[in-house]
Amino acid sequence: MREQGHIRAALDCYQQALKLNPNLSTALGNFGLLLTACGDLETGLQHCRKAVELRPNDVPARYQLGKMLLEFGHIEEAMEVLSDVVETDPDNAELAVTVGRVWIELGDLRQARSWFERALQLEPDLNEAQCGIAQVLREAGDPEAAIQAYQKVLEKEPGRMDAQAGLARAFQDHGDMDLAVATYRETIRQYPESASLHACLGHAMAEAGDLDEAVNCHRRAITLNPRCVPALSGLATTLRGRTSDEELGQLEKLLNVPWMTDGRRAALNFGLAQAFDGKGDYQRAAVHIKDANEFQKKHYEQRDQGYSAEVFREHVDRLIETFTPEYFERVSSLGFGVGSERPVFIVGMPRSGTTLTEQILATHPRAFGAGERSFIQNSLQLLPTALQLSEPPLECLKRITAEAVGRLTGWHLDRLRGLDSSHDRVVDKMPDNYQFLGWIATLHPQAKIIHCQRDIRDVAFSCWITNFARIRWANDLEHLAQRVIDYQRLMNHYRQVLPIPVLEVSYEQMIANQEEATRRLLDFVGLEWDPNCLDFHKTERLVRTASVAQVRQPIYKRSVARWKYYEAALKAFLEALHFA
């Protein structure tokens, strides 16, 4: 019953078994693990500990205790328990998979992969280990490889829940929201009692722009597990000011339960921050924003995944040193790049209006909105292979050839055709592509680049209150300030050296005069006027963005100068940027 996703029926069976034999360690451990799916982690841990007390040398019991400790965030204790079991049963492939998952929690993807590979050496057909490798690929920022890995598992074992859920998340990371939502729905059809699946679909629907369905999904998850942190946080983030007092109370009660990890506390505080901000209670919102970011920063640092402002500063230095007037003169004289006007790139800081700009363009019948794609950065990472060199990509640019550029331009255009082959313009709104404008100009000298700008204080606040999945520089105001400084420094450099035009779009001007700004956009990318672009919020296309609330309603002005409500809380940022 458990394997088929019938959690309630499985719980009943374990309870009956324990009535017949209260000391049945296998039932205690499995019952304990299942209780976590229903939100009763405290009782679950008690059952797993009791199973080990009854049979200290029982491998399954200690294995289950290790998994439960992992749920509590007791990573070191979990690793100690599992290490003892590994010594007892070194050839247990499933145990190796669990150790691999601990290493993922610790942020060491190399160690994690080695344990998954060890599991496959012990048991070559173990799909759980293949799913672990797919997760490593996704966590490492390679969703395409992760998708392929999950699909291989599903070819061998159709309907496997962790593979389907992982595939949906990989589609989401890749920007394929239609496929992500469809995969989540199919998985829920097979496993309707999984609160975590409903919560994942809720987050996907919120990213995709269907806020009503996102709320429904989160509430279904909470019905199945009233202490489901992702669902409670997602519900408050989606409802914002419409979050009920009862729902806020649920979030606040959970903040200090024994199994609350830093990552979960961050999610709850982000949800509470969005809700109080929506209600206009800015003082309470500021407290929760501060707590959320502190917990999130701690969560990353404990896993050696913290942000280094110095590393990024050095990266920007290398970009400036690489993309010089001499570089562009050389590639221009050799005729690098392809004269395709199809690619359109929207760049800028996150929360600067990139999503709004893309949505306006994607409403045009001749334009396709591709969302946030990592194709440009990936193509640069492929440069050493194209040149058959072992040097870093930016070093390889010193020895770049027309042949290599042609191959990588073709690779990029093939990726765009794979997304859409019928529209005249394909719009990529990956904000971080501002770093790679020099590379874009190398591949696509006829491409259209749109740079979105917004009052940097509003950008900073919006980043600070947002629970990003991968952005780690927004959890510390000093890091955020330095990121802005380096972004501005790099964009000032590109303005001086870039050989192709860049349209600067002001978020505030877009808000003040939407039609004028829209006409400028369409004219710049070579599209005729279409009044439907003014009704961008009516489109039914799925988008992947943290700005979904804005792209689902007409342009509003309340997001302008929003930072002023939080001026005291933003003091460190404002001082670093010389606003205070």
What percentage of residues falls in helices of 4 or more residues?
55-70%
Q: Total number of helical segments?
A: 31
CATH architecture of the domain at 309-576: 3-Layer(aba) Sandwich
What is the number of beta strands?
5
Tell me, rounded to a whole number, the average pLDDT: 92
The fourth-level CATH homologous superfamily of the domain at 309-576 is P-loop containing nucleotide triphosphate hydrolases
CATH topology annotation of the domain at 309-576? Rossmann fold
Strand order of the largest sheet: 2-3-1-4-5
Kindly provide the name of the CATH class of the domain at 309-576.
Alpha Beta
Shape: globular
State the separation between the terminal residues, measured CA to CA. 62 Å
Q: Indicate the low-confidence ranges by residue numbers.
A: none
- Biggest pleated-sheet summary: 5 strands, parallel
Approximately what portion of the residues adopt beta-strand conformation? under 5%
User: Which structural category do the helix and sheet elements fall into?
Assistant: mainly alpha
Cα-based radius of gyration, to the nearest Å: 25 Å
Produce a short descriptive summary.
It contains 31 helices and 5 strands. The chain is mainly α.
List the helices and strands and how they pair.
Elements: H1 7-20, H2 25-37, H3 41-54, H4 59-71, H5 75-88, H6 93-106, H7 109-122, H8 127-139, H9 143-156, H10 161-174, H11 177-190, H12 195-208, H13 211-224, H14 229-239, H15 245-254, H16 262-278, H17 282-302, H18 309-322, H19 325-333, E1 343-347, H20 354-362, E2 367-371, H21 375-381, H22 383-387, H23 393-396, H24 402-419, E3 425-428, H25 437-443, E4 448-453, H26 456-464, H27 477-497, E5 502-506, H28 507-512, H29 514-525, H30 548-551, H31 571-576
Parallel strand pairs: 1-3, 1-4, 2-3, 4-5
